[in-house]
Design brief:
Oligomer: single chain
Number of strands: 0
Shape: flat
Distance between the termini: 26 Å
Strand content: under 5%
Length: 52
């Protein structure tokens, strides 16, 4: 999200290739997480203000 905001600001210099790379990386991490869940790995529930 921050990359899109920086891209909208003049002079910040976020390249289209960088935006595409981060988007594809995000897609991969999402699919990898889904695959791990399908293999029986559980999600880690985020709870604000607590350490793990």
């Amino acid at each position: 999200r921050i990359m899109v905001e920086l891209n909208d600001k003049a002079g910040e210099g976020v390249t289209p290739a960088a935006l595409k790379y981060v988007n594809r990386l995000s897609d991969f991490l999402f699919v990898a997480g889904r695959h791990a869940n399908a293999k029986g790995t559980s999600d880690v529930l985020w709870q604000p203000g607590q350490n793990r």
